[in-house]
Write a structure and sequence with these properties.
By secondary structure, this protein is of the alpha+beta class. It contains three helices and three strands.
């Protein structure tokens, strides 16, 4: 395939199946992808979040085997925004009686 054909093919299936991985493992992760898969079956978005890269795969089996290669602490880490248990309803939880100067 020509580079332009690879680009167009990837854009047809992206985002596909995604795996978020800590950016410190970038070189090892890219080496794994280069050896295990064809170039048109995977792509990476570097620094898609703080210290995080997002790897995109055409097939679920490739994404699952990729994620299994790494320590679970570094794969699909929970983001601070995902730790919120209840959505904010727009009302302040601040108790004004505590800071009364009277």
């Amino acid at each position: 395939m020509l580079p332009v054909e690879i680009f167009e093919y990837k854009n047809r299936w992206k985002p596909g199946y995604t795996v978020r991985l800590h950016s410190d493992l970038r070189m090892s992760a890219k080496d794994y992808c280069r050896v295990q898969m064809f170039q048109h079956q995977w792509d990476v978005a570097e620094y898609s979040y703080v210290y995080e890269d997002t790897y995109m795969f055409e097939h679920k089996l490739d994404a699952d085997s990729f994620a299994a290669q790494w320590n679970p602490l570094f794969v699909n880490q929970q983001r601070p925004t995902e730790q919120l248990t209840t959505p904010w309803d727009g009302e302040s939880q601040y108790d004004e009686s505590v800071d009364s100067y009277e």
